[in-house]
Queue: 2 jobs
Job 1
Amino acid sequence: MKNKYVFAGILLAMITAVSAAVIHFTTITEEPHEEREGALEVVTSFYPMYIAAENVIGDITDIHLTNMTRPQTGCLHDYQLSPEDMQTLSGADAFIINGGGIESFLDTVLKNYPDLPVITASDGIAMLEVKTFGISGPEADMDKGHDHGDRNPHVWMDVSKYMQEVDNIAKGLASLDPAHADQYRQNADRYCEKLEPLQTEAQEITRDAGQTNIIIFHDSFAYFADAYGLQVADVIELEEDNTLSAGQLAHLMQVIQEKEVKMLFVEKQYSTKVAEAVAKESGTRVYVLDSLVTGDGDPDSYIRGMEENLAVLREAL
Ligand SMILES: [Zn+2]
C-alpha cells in the first residue's frame, strides 16, 4: 500500500518535470523572428540603429525588437534585400532607419509596405557633404565604393549627432506607442547621460590637436574628424579588396606631402592592406577605427566601440 503511494508520487513528480520541460521548451523555441501576439514589432535596418533602439526600448516588456540585417552586415552600401528581410518587415509595426540614403532599398520597402510607419533617426540632423575632392577626374566615376548621393549619412559617428538620433527614435516610438511614451523618454535620457562622457573625453584628447590633417578610408570617419577638430585632407573609398591605381597612388602621395599628412585612418571592418602599403611608401602611420556598424548586440557596444576609437585617437595625437 505504502509503495503504491510512493510510486504515484514519483510518477506525479515525473509528469511535473516533463511538463515543465515542455513548457520551457515551448518558451525557448519562440525565436525572435516569430511574431508575438499583441507585442509591438519594431524592426531596425542595421546595427547602429538596433543598438540605439535597444537602449530606448530598454526593459519595456511588450515591445519586440528585430534587426533586419545581421550584426556583421556592416554599412548598408549596395545592400540587396533578401526574401527573409521582406518577411521580417511584413510583420513590422515600425521600421527604424538611419536615413540620408544609406538604406538605398527604402523605395522597394515602401512600395511593398506603403502603410509601414518609418522612423528616420537622422531627421533634422545637419549632414556633411560627401567629399570627393581627393580622387578627381575619370577615376572618380570609377570609384563606386559609396553611392549615398551628395550627403554623408554616417551621422552616428559623431556622438552628439548620435544622441539626436536616439532622441528621434524615442519620439518616433512614443508617437506610435503613446502608452510607453514616458518610458521611451526616460530610457533615451538615461542612455544619453551614459554617452555624455565620450564627449568630454574627446574634448580632452583633441584640445591640443591643432591643425592635424588626416586621410580617411571610409567617409564615416568624416564625422569623427569633424567632431574632434581633425582636418580631412582626402577620402579614399575602396571596394572590398581593391587596390589603388597608379594614378590614385600618385595623387595620394601628393596630398600627403602637400598637406603634411601623418595619419591614415582605416576601418576595422575592411582590409588595411592598401593603407599599410601607402603608409610604408609615405612614412605615415595607419590607425584602425571602428565605424560601429558591427558588434555583438550588447546595448553598450556603441559606447565600448567609441571608447576604443578615442583610445586610438589619443595614441595618434
Ligand atoms: Zn558607409
Job 2
Amino acid sequence: MSPAAAAAVKVIGAYDSPFSHRAEAALRLKGVPYELVLEDLHNKSDLLLTHNPVHKKVPVLLHGDRAVCESLIIMEYVDEAFDGPAILPADPHERAMARFWARFIDDKCSEPFWLAMWTDGEAQKGYIKEIKESFALLEAQLEGKRFFGGDAIGFVDLAACEFSRWLGVCEEITGVSLVTEEEFPRLQRWAVEYAADEKIGACMPDRAVLLDHLTAEKEMFMAMAKSRLPK
Ligand SMILES: N[C@@H](CCC(=O)N[C@@H](CS)C(=O)NCC(=O)O)C(=O)O
C-alpha cells in the first residue's frame, strides 16, 4: 500500500442511509479500517458542508485531508486506492457492465422504488409498475448467479443494497409488497444472502432500529414523495 493509502479514513454518513452503506461496505470488503462520523441530516455539520459543498449529502469519504463524494464514485475510489479483493471485475467489458447496472439502479430504480413506497392512489400504481419492470431486469441479471458480482459480492451488489434490508423494512411499514417469492425469487434470495454476509452485516443497520427510524420519518417521506409528483 502506498503511504498516501495509509492515511486515516473516515466516512461522513447517516445510520439509515443505503448510500452511506455503499461506502462503508466497500471499505469492509477491502478490509480498510475507518471511522464512521454520523451526520444529523436535519442539522448539517460544517464538516459535511465543507467537504461536500456541491450536493451537501452523505456519504463523504475522507482519506487523510482529501474528500470524495457520491457513493458510486467512493466505491470506485476505494477499489482503486486500497489493496484487497477487487470490487469491480478485472475484465474491461465486465467492468463497464457493472458500472452500467449500478447507474441503472440509481437512474431507473431508486426514485420509483421510493415513490412506490410513499405515494398512494393512481400515482403509486404507476410507480409500482415502473419499479417492477426494473426489478424484472435485475432479476434476469441474477440468473445462474449467487450475487450480481457472481460468487462474491461486488460493485452492483453494493449499488443494489437498498433492495435488501431497506426494501423489506419499507414493505413492512407501508404494506406495499414489491419483491415476492413468486414474482422475483432470485432478488428475494439475493436480499437475504446479501444482508447475511459477515462483512456486509457489520455495516448494515440493525433491522429493528431501521424499522423504528423509518417509521418515525413516515409522514415526512410521504410529504416529500407528494411534493415530487408532477403537478
Ligand atoms: N447520489 C448520492 C445520493 C446521496 C443521498 O441522497 N444521501 C441522502 C441520505 S440517504 C442525503 O444526504 N440527504 C440529505 C439531503 O438531501 O439534504 C450518492 O450516491 O451518494
